[in-house]
Amino acid sequence: MNLKINIPKNVKIILDKLMNNGYEAYIVGGCVRDSVLGKSPKDWDITTKAKPEEVINLFDNVILTGIKHGTVTVMIDKEGYEVTTYRIDGEYEDGRHPKKVEFVSDLREDLARRDFTINAMAYNPKNGLVDYFNGIDDLNKKIIKTVGEPKKRFCEDALRMLRAVRFSAQLKFSISNDVLLSIKELKSNINKVSKERIREEFNKILISNAEKIEILKETGLLQFIIPEFVKTYGFEQNNPYHIYNLYEHSLIATKEIDNELHLKLTMLLHDLGKLYTKTTDKNNISHFYKHAIESSNIAEKILKDLKYDNATIKQVVTLIKYHDCTLNTKLSVKKMLNRIGKDLFEDLIKVKRADILAQNPIYKKDRLLNLVKAKNELEKILEKNECFNLKDLRVNGKDLIEIGFSKGKEIGEVLSYLLNIVIENPELNNKQKLLIIVKNRFLNVN
């Protein structure tokens, strides 16, 4: 194929130096795939016939990142470029990593060990594109296929099953039937993969195309990532406000929310508490009282199990806890602002909107209008700098000490009392007025 890839200057320096010293060298994998697709590669990986020690001898600044597996990192202008010797992998004992690798002199052998055909292409300016496994054809057909037998590839490294779904999400490609069947058969092998690696692939699927969660469900992978989700399949909500079962509702809501990880996770997990709070009245209508609190507890457990960072967990758990709250008055808006702050409040509006869009459309208009009113109230509160937290209260602990209070718990209680007054009566957020209230209420000064 007559293809020209625009290789960055530093990558070309490495290729040229290797080739001028008699060693084959190519860019390989994702950078070739992305270049063919017209995307800008994030990383430029190089594969070469040169042994690691030969690469080390050729370059001034080399980091021994994975020399055991034939990889070193060549540093140029403070940027690192991975250079890996042609290799074949030995036996995969743990379903993730080869026990050993063997260096080889044939590029085809190196490309044959890779996961998917679209990632098994190499290129250099001298020889052009090397595509032994029809990667270009599969790129044109927009399909994910493995290099060789899918079962063999997935038994070698179970993470590849998730990577297949991730590439499908990122590239908007389909997955070949034999790959899907092999994932179904080997799905439990995903337990051999660390939670951290599963989490990272899962995040990319969520952000790239949440609809691909359907593939995780159909192949059975989802039950090993979030076991609680299995119970949502076919879980009917039996309520006029809902026309979808719990799984469908959660997936639609996840698709509708903004493309930020903590928001995607919130919508995916926001209603899991319904599984354990369902009651049905005499009219055969189901209710899910306090499901938001139950959902937040379940979400926290799931996110901790998948090793999410504390900041993300806190955001998601807070949004789920309040996703079902009522925001129909200025006072309710200010009280929620006091609980969660401006940024999370703005996220909460997005969460409630996505939730509404995944419910019965008959009730959509009025509910969305209520959200618009809540957002308008927020803007007015911010525009007028109305107080909704202790930071903006015109009286502080030091002021209370000056009029006779002792340090400690009592000061916190008095400030909290004043804040509640000011939230309801913004015109009272004045130091003199507040101190008069304190003196009359707590110090009996007339």
UniProtKB/TrEMBL annotation:
Residues 297-435 form the CCA-adding enzyme C-terminal domain. Residues 173-229 form the tRNA nucleotidyltransferase/poly(A) polymerase RNA and SrmB- binding domain. The keyword Cytoplasm does not apply. Pfam families: PolyA_pol, PolyA_pol_RNAbd, tRNA_NucTran2_2. Its cofactor is Mg(2+). Residues 25-144 form the Poly A polymerase head domain. Gene3D superfamilies: 1.10.246.80, Beta Polymerase, domain 2, cca-adding enzyme, domain 2. Belongs to the tRNA nucleotidyltransferase/poly(A) polymerase family. It comes from the Bacteria. PANTHER family: CCA TRNA NUCLEOTIDYLTRANSFERASE 1, MITOCHONDRIAL. Keywords: Magnesium, Metal-binding, Nucleotide-binding, Nucleotidyltransferase, RNA-binding, Transferase, tRNA processing. This is HD domain-containing protein.
